[in-house]
What we know:
By secondary structure, the chain is mainly beta. The chain has one helix and seven strands, in the order E-E-E-E-E-E-H-E. It starts with a strand and ends with a strand.
Amino acid sequence: MQFKTIHEKEHTFFAINEISLLRSTPLASNLKISVNGNTRLQKCVSDGIIVSTAAGSTAYNRSLGGPIFPLESPLIALTPNNV
């Protein structure tokens, strides 16, 4: 995962099953999600979002109402987290 903050600071992290993004201020987060350079979600205003692979779709993603994918599925779930 690579992301840039509102202050243009860039970060890179590695993940296997899922990535959980949560706001760090009292204000809602305003997210744009791109996967491999392709914009998948232009704008998501929420407390955060879970981005999960098929392997991670049965964990935290599912507890937030996200879909469960077969393990061999090439899909990625984008599930808003409105705490």
